[in-house]
Amino acid sequence: MADAPAPPFSAWERELAFRYLRARRSEGGVALISVISFVGIMLAVAVLIIVMSVMNGFRADLSNMILGFNGHDFIVGGAENADGLPAQLARIRAVPHVVSAFPIVESETLAQSEGGQAGALVRGVTLAELESTPLIARNIKQGSLKGFGQGEDGGDGILLGTRLAETLDVGIGDRVSLISPAAADTVMGAVPLQKSYVVAGLFEVGMSEYDQGFIYMPLRQAQLFFGRGDSIDYIEVKLDNADLAQKLKPLLAKAAGPGAIVTDWTDKNQAYFGALAVEHNVMFLILALLVLIASLNIISALVMLVKNKGRDIAILRTMGAGKGAILRVFFLCGAAVGVLGTAAGLFVGVLFCWRIHDIQRFVEWVTHTPVFSAQVYFLSRIPAKIEWSEVVAITLIALTASFLATLPPAWRASRLDPVEALRYE
């Protein structure tokens, strides 16, 4: 009885394919081009993983900063007068998933000291509000929250961001003059209100926009300084899940009372996060093209390999090897380069993201130049967050492109006529 034919991708097909890949140029091999193809795919996959992870980390860090520094929902109006504010706050805090709700007074000001001046946003809050904001309470670099809001009309102690303090050249215990946009009526006409405050603490959250531009002031003092009387600007609501901010808006509006306007953090930052999402998707498509371009090198390598191995193909065909077997041999040659290049790129990309902070410090040490300036990128270090779903997608794209690139030359090899191949041998 005749022996059964070998199954697809049998041992002899795999052995022959890997022998062709290892063959020297003098033996008709294309090792150099294969190495170039391998390196190209490896670098393309690694770059795609690194760039996407950095963009994911940048977006995640900014989201955490924004949500940690600000509330999730914001309520304006609803209370008939200042006497109705406690009852309004109680109703809002009773809404499911609400962690905290505090009154806020917020206004722009000009901060001056003997060392400089800068514009800033003053946020009038209670001590309980600051203590419920871990991003501030846990990042007091100098001074403390002790005594904040105590004294006549809330006292005169304020908190500054560290970068703002550097601009003003002030420290703990120094005085900073604030100029209110609300004018005071005098015999000389309307004059901007100016008052001196004591720096009680310095905070640093790691985002330059906040460290450079914010001042925290006791709520009662802010109401007096900005001419609010007993009123507030808005109520800041924090939830146990920021993703529920939009869903809970109707419940918060009902709890706040008639005429209340409720907005959420996505409304305030919609354009910004929308731009990040578009940039992320466009960058993914552009870098995915690099993977496709790198995989085209496999075609060049296989075309040359088929040309150099024409005699071998003819001999195999005369010995009984079918067209499918020849196609699979050369498909394995190209697929091996694609798989190994993708695996190496996956390893390099993930390792780079894992050690990206050490790499950043090393580059800065060698060049003596910050590679991720907080003044430009808002954050003080390069963030990286690996989304494994994206890594899987990148891997599938690289493998698919590599496999498809091997098919044309492998199909051409399977169609090679043994007579024509041996005619001039």
Explain the overall architecture:
- With about 425 residues, the protein is α+β, with helices and mostly antiparallel strands.
- It has two domains: about 10-65 and about 270-420, no CATH class; about 80-260, no CATH class.
- It contains 17 helices and ten strands.
- It has helices spanning about 10-20, 30-70, 85-95, 125-130, 135, 160-170, 210-215, 220-225, 250-255, 265-270, 270-310, 310-320, 325-355, 355-365, 375, 390-415, 420; strands at about 75, 100-115, 115-125, 140-145, 155-160, 175-185, 190-205, 215-220, 235-240, 260-265.
- The protein has a six-stranded mixed β-barrel with strand order 2-3-8-5-7-6.
- The longest helix is centred in the first third of the chain and has 39 residues, at about 30-70.
- The protein is elongated.
